[in-house]
Structures are given as structure tokens and as C-alpha cells.
Automatic annotation (TrEMBL):
It is found in: Membrane. GO terms for molecular function: monocarboxylic acid transmembrane transporter activity. This is MOT6 protein. Gene3D superfamilies: MFS general substrate transporter like domains (1.20.1250.20). PROSITE patterns: MFS. Keywords: Membrane, Transmembrane, Transmembrane helix. Residues 203-237 are annotated as: Disordered. It comes from the Eukaryota. InterPro entries: MFS, MFS_dom, MFS_trans_sf, Proton-linked_MCT. It comes from Chionis minor (Black-faced sheathbill). The keyword Transmembrane helix applies.
Amino acid sequence: MSQGGAAACEANKPQDRGWAWMVLLATVLLQGLTLGFPSCIGVFFTDLQHDFQASNSETSWFPSIMVAVLHGGGPLCSILVKRFGCRFTVMLGGLLSGVGMVSSSFCKSINQLYLTAGLITGLGSCFSFQAGLTVLGYYFVRWRTLANAIASTGVSLGFTLWPLLSQYLLDEMGWRNTFLIFGGILLNCCVCGAIMRPVQLASGSPQQSPKPAEEPGRKAEGAQLSNGASSPHPELQQQTRRTACFQMLQKYLAFDIFCQNKGYQIYTIGVTWMMMGFALPHVYLVPYAIQNGVEERRAALLISVIGLINIFIRPLTGLLSGHRVFTGRRIYLFSLAVLLCGLSNFICVISAEFSVLIVYCVILSIAMSGIGALTFQVLMDVVEMDRFSSALGLFTILESITLLIGPPLTGLLVDITSDFHYVFYNSSFFLISAALFMGLSFCALEKKTKLKEASKVSLDNPSRYQYNEMPTESQAESQSPPAVVYITSI
């Protein structure tokens, strides 16, 4: 081995060994504390509605804001990670989450709850979760796929444990004291962040580069000076600022990819539409069961059943879908999972007995496992990896909008009709229509791509991303992960 190769191996010594597994354990805990937390909100739905004298629509804004901010805060998290590092961002997120829930225990109106538990806790959870996954990419290279599959079990653990703990604490001490305790529990994200010490990469520099946001401005300024401008002109300064702003937007929100890449365009629209109905069962399943005579403890158990099955199915689905047999076909597996999720909602309409609802939760959990495991794998299939981070930024922001408005609009319909069945009708409509749209559109796009390839007879360098209409340049794989990859999970 050459001296340079030996030096690189020595610099990457923390990766895939030793402390990396402690970081993985911290990431599992982080996912349970952050992504798993919104699953318990339905337990408090009825109590909050009674205490604040709020309608279904008003009460559902609280979890909607939390989930929307959790998914849509990716670009802001990315900026913080680049400027201050992953460890700082995770600990800041834990602090915000804890403060948000402690403040929520003192709220006097539902509107205050939107700010404290919805915005502050949601933003804190976003910072902790996404920065935690980013640092995991630095600690694992060879075993990165396995590490991400193991880390995803944290979401399932959170789905299983949070509802049971919530119902127990709610029965014993009420929702205000429960929120106060939750604030202390979420502060453990700071402990997880403290474990995630920076990794020295092969170049000998830390994983974070200082103040990258200034680079576009510097480039534009350099271009201005190279054009012979001896003194800054006001119009040139304004043009420089516009150029820098455009470069920043293109870096974190890939509008150019959305306009040029038909596969990314179809997938983003389909998932955004799907999210209008995806979160509805999580918010309304427990209130629906309680209204139909199911005991509160057993109603909370329904969400835990979903999480328990996810623990086993989600990692298995992720690993199986990564097999080369499914390369280029994952979008159809994803559409099938979305279709199954939509069809499963009709079980609730047939009957609200506890045994029937258990069957519904089992089928829903299997479908959700497929959606959660494939969402970002499909996105990697349709977008080049060097633009994945920015493509994910636009993707998460658009889906967060529909996550925000879906439950309140459905809650308004329930308030008008006094019938919870419309929750599951709405969910099925959005999920089934999204599945059909994505499956049929990608099928048509694939046929169009094959016709183009046949006409050009380009057999030398087949593209890995068969849904991508943008030309792809071959690039050597880098041993180190991208500077920032903010990833959400469903």
C-alpha cells in the first residue's frame, strides 16, 4: 500500500469501527425521540379539544404544524450544519424540543400550543434528527447502508413506546404534567449530540467547512473584478447580490432539476399529493376508536401496534429493495405500497371494533414500512447524487406544505359532518390517486426513454438513473460523504 493510501486509512480510522457504533446507537435514540414523537399526539387529541374548547380542525393544526416543520426545516438545518457542525445542531435541536414542550405545559390557549409544541418543538426535532443522520454518514462508509437500516428502527421504537408512555402519564397526571415530563425526555437529544464528535476526514480537515454561504458571493465578486470593474458600481453590486441569492436558492432548492428532470418532477408532485392523506390516520385513529367505544388504553395501543411491526418490516424492506434485482423498479414497489396504504383505510369504514382495527393497523404498518423504506431510495434513482441534497430540500418543503394543511382541512370536514369516516375516505382518495399517478406516469416515461435510447443507440454507457432525462456524467465515487445531506423519514 502507498504512503498516501496508508495515511488516508489512518485518517479514516474512526469510520466503521469503535466509536462509530456509539454514534449509531445515539442516532437510533434520536430517531425515536424526534420522528417517533408525533405518533403520540393523537392520545392527547380529545383532552386538548375539551380543555381548550376547540374544534377538530383547530386541534389538528397542532400536530400538523409539528410534522410540517419537522419535514420542511431541512434547508435551514443544512445551513446550520455547514456553519456550526452536526454536533452543535443536534444539541441545539434537543434544547429547542425540550423548551417547546415545557412551554406547552403552561399554554392557556390552543393558539399558544401552535407556537410552542408545533413550531419550536417541531423545529428542534428537525435539527436533531437531520443533523444526526448527516453525522452518521461521516462515521460509516463501508457499512453505511446497514447503519441507516439499523438507525431507521429508532422510528419504529418511537412509534411503539411513545403512545404507551403517553397514555400512562395522561391517566396518572394529566396532559400538562405529561408535556412537562416530555420536555425533560427530549433534552436527551443533547446527550446524543454530545456523543457525535467531529470526524477527521482523509484530507485532515474536519467534516464541516466554515462559512460556505459566503462562497457564491465571493465567486460573483471575483467575476466582477475579472471583467475589469475597478470600483464597485451600484448596479453591478445589485446584480452580484441577485446572482449570489440565485446560487443559494439553486443550491438548497433545486428548481432547475424540477423543471428539467421529468422523473423528479413526477415523483415530487406524486409524493406531495400523497402527503395530503398520509398523516390522517396517525392524527385521527385514536379519537375515532374512542368515539366508537374503544377504551382509551386500547385505542393508544393501536399506534403502538403500527410501530411494533415497523421495527421488523422497515429495515427488512429497505435491505431487500436495495438488491440489484429491484434497480429501476423501486418506483413501482413504492407506488404499490402507497396503493395498499390507501386501500387499507376502507377497513376502518367497515367496522370500528377493536379486533378489526388491529387488522387495519397490521396492514397499514406493512404498507407504511414500504413507503418509509423506499421514499429516499427512489429519489436517489431519479436524481444524480451530487444534486441529491438540494433536490431533497425542495422535495421536503413541498411535502411539508401538504402535511400542514391535510389534517386541518379533514378536521373541518369532520366538524361539518360529525362523521369520522370522512377521515379515511379522504386518506384513501389522496393515497390511491397518488399511487396511480406515479405508477402510470413512470411507466409512460420509461417507454418514452426506451424509444429515445433505441433511436440514439447509446449502449456504451447505460445510465443508472433510467427515469432521469438530464444527461449524467460519470463520476468517481468518493469515500467521504457529501458535506451535508439532510434526510427526513416517514
